[in-house]
Amino acid sequence: MDDQTQKQQKKPASRLSGFLVRLIATLVVLAVGVSLVVLVAFRDQLNLDSVKRWFHYRSLTRSDSGQAESFHYDGDLNCIFAALDGDLLVCSQNAISLYSGSGTRYINQQVSMEHPVVTSNGSLAVVYDAGGSSLYILGQRSLVWSAEDLEGILSARLNKNGQLTVVTQAGGYRGKVTVYNASYEPVMSVNLTSAFVMDAALSDNGHTLATLTAGQRDGVFATGLELYAMNYASGSYQSDVSASLGGGVALDLRHTAGAVWVLSDRGLTISDHDGNTVTADWPDKYLRRYTLSGDGFAAALLGKYRAGSQTELWVVDQDGSRRSLPLNEQVMSISAAGRYVAVLTGDRLDIYTQELELYSSLKGTKGARTVLLMPDGSAILISADSAGFYVP
Which pTM does this prediction carry? Predict the structure, then answer.
């Protein structure tokens, strides 16, 4: 067969190959275009969080509304509850329990505490007896570490790296702050004499320690913020930054990688590590409920009166900007995690984005009185003797 004949036979194949390439390319472009349209139209439903929920709860049997069958827990609404890595942590004076979404109990730790308190970084939780001597760290569905001989615990907090900060009473001082590494070995200790220590937290990156103190300034009660650089080689520590946070009573503290969030009865103060501060005040409103657990935001439920159903939900960002949503129903509980904030009323659960846009709503909450939100937008609804998961 000569060369001319071979070239003539190759032409149809080449044309067919080129047509297939163009057809495939056109189909790919159309598929990408359709996918983009779908993602834009359903961006709130088809986000990464929905994928996470599908993988995490794929074995959990749910109704069409997204509710899983409720399960009984040991305790009542007087217990302390926390969401721990997708599970439910229940703490009473006598026991610490951890339940999966299906009700399987992984932890049943017997304890003896007069005033149990729980704080969590999402994957680990610290449970301690306020004013007592016992402390427990839980994670990976097990008891990780415990201490029974601490002196008068005032607060205990974990940062994102699992490092622990504990405030205790100390003879001859007005408080002692001890920082532990992720193996729970003490690496830094600060004794304060000038003011009473109320709370302390290590930044999420482990570089800065923040302490809250209470004392008098010019004869008036004042809350103080002290920041310490974490120089582990030093044996003596002096604060690098000091700031007065006014006369409000500090109720909660959160320390991210770059900012200290302090919530009081009068407002929210956000300070960076240079001492620059922004505030969101509510002097003419009563603080009903609050949470500092949002990703870059805090939420506060405020009322014009001490009682009544007329309230406002405030969401405050790190720069001090805020958004508000009026509510005209009795709010039982609020919770925040990730980019979401949840509002539980008598018979409905509403989950909003941090922009206060409605993300998901559930009617018929079966007597739930407490809601715990998780970073992927799923929630745990807790009633007097049972709990159940809701997956949007």
Answer: 0.85
